[in-house]
Automatic annotation (TrEMBL):
Lineage: Bacteria, Pseudomonadati, Pseudomonadota, Gammaproteobacteria, Alteromonadales
Pfam family membership, one: JmjC_2
InterPro entries xref list: JmjC_dom, NO66-like
A single GO molecular function term of this UniProt record: metal ion binding
Protein name: Cupin
């Protein structure tokens, strides 16, 4: 699929600044999943799914039911929405929706949530703490979107956050199949299905400072160079013991600043942002470097990056994937870059041309064992 719009203009004027509507961003859009398949996925034990109903006969007017679901008849034919998270990790065709948005850094990509709404279905006016592109699939939906503003949030039902009061909409439009709506984090929005509708939300994580510091603290405990202990500035016997002196605060802040600007911080951050949202599925048996050439030479063999996997380049010889550092020898740099750029399925024969030497095969084997990439045979 090709996203038709001016990416440079979008990045300069809209990305993380204000919402916008891209009419027919996907021309002749074809849904990669049907409502029936999505409903079947929501019956699976491992799928993260929920149904949100707007009900006039409840005190709050809203009800949330979590999957897995056994059947759907009790929900009726209107005023409810089925949402399934990370559908890209279950259905590769849905994962292909990420590719057109790779003008944004790979590490920012979170997942693709798919929703099916009956007529008048929606989840109410709310804020998201991430940037999102919403692709309209089958059906149509009326969207109202406001610019970023401070609004009070509340929970009308368990696991459902909405905003109180009205917001001024800068976008108030009906979306048809192929239209794309971009909503930055913190912008209030509300979508109501005008008829049975599918929507695909390509989300981009926008971690808070607190979240990054928490992750950094966890991973820093494993870094020997960051085990240095705090030392007091020069003290005096006349200092007041129960008073926090400015010199002490300055010393603490300098101590932390040194940690955040030291030589090791780049690697720690790369480990954090290369981690997958969920554990990657590792193969039952490890692959050895010696096996790689034969595996790639299999007829109809294809290679694909696992859904949710990231493989990121930090420096000329350092790549990060699944939270791990890959030290890349010169002979394997072209192989590493090929794997980092991998989108969708590619014939394994293309990679075989870059796997003649032992370092290349060792890299491929390690990435298979980490669950970052996998090989499969297309029998069709």
């Amino acid at each position: 699929m090709k996203l038709v719009f001016d990416k440079d203009d979008f990045l300069a004027n809209y990305w993380q600044k204000k919402p916008c509507l891209i009419r027919q961003g996907f021309v002749d859009f074809i849904d990669p999943v049907s409502p029936e398949i999505l409903a079947g996925l929501a019956m699976e034990e491992g799928a993260d799914s929920r149904i949100i109903e707007s009900q006039t006969d409840t005190e709050s007017g809203w009800l949330v039911t979590h999957g897995p679901f056994e059947e759907y008849e009790q929900f009726g034919e209107s005023h409810w929405t089925l949402l399934v998270q990370s559908v890209n990790e279950w259905l590769p065709d849905v994962g292909d929706l990420i590719t057109p948005f790779r003008f944004v850094p790979d590490w920012r990509i979170d997942d693709v949530m798919v929703s099916f709404s009956c007529e008048n279905g929606g989840v109410g006016p709310h804020l998201d703490q991430y940037d999102v592109f919403i692709i309209q699939g089958a059906g149509s939906r009326h969207w109202r979107v406001g610019e970023r503003q401070s609004m009070r949030e509340y929970q009308p039902a368990a696991d459902l956050c909405q905003v109180e009061g009205e917001f001024t909409a800068v976008i108030d439009e009906h979306l048809q199949a192929g239209d794309v709506l971009y909503i930055p984090a913190g912008c209030p929005h509300d979508g109501i299905a005008l008829e049975p509708s599918l929507n695909y939300s390509v989300g981009f994580r926008a971690p808070s400072k607190a979240e990054l510091l928490l992750q950094l603290g966890d991973i820093a405990m494993q870094q020997e160079s960051l085990q240095e202990r705090y030392q007091d500035p020069e003290l005096s016997s006349e200092d007041i013991s129960w008073e926090i002196a400015d010199s002490q605060l300055s010393a603490l802040k300098s101590f932390l600043k040194d940690a955040l600007t030291g030589n090791d911080i780049d690697a720690l951050l790369a480990r954090i942002i290369s981690q997958s949202k969920r554990p990657l599925p590792e193969p039952e048996l490890p692959t050895t470097a010696q096996q790689v050439p034969d595996l790639l030479a299999q007829p109809n063999a294809f290679i694909e990056k696992a859904s949710g996997a990231r493989f990121l380049k930090l420096s000329h010889t350092e790549f990060y994937g699944n939270g791990e550092n890959f030290k890349i020898p010169q002979e394997a740099l072209a192989t590493a870059e090929w794997l980092a750029q991998l989108q969708g399925s590619k014939p394994a024969s293309e990679l075989a041309e870059l796997a003649h030497l032992a370092p290349q095969s060792e890299l491929i084997a390690e990435m298979i064992n980490q669950g970052i990439i996998y090989l499969y045979i297309n029998e069709s």
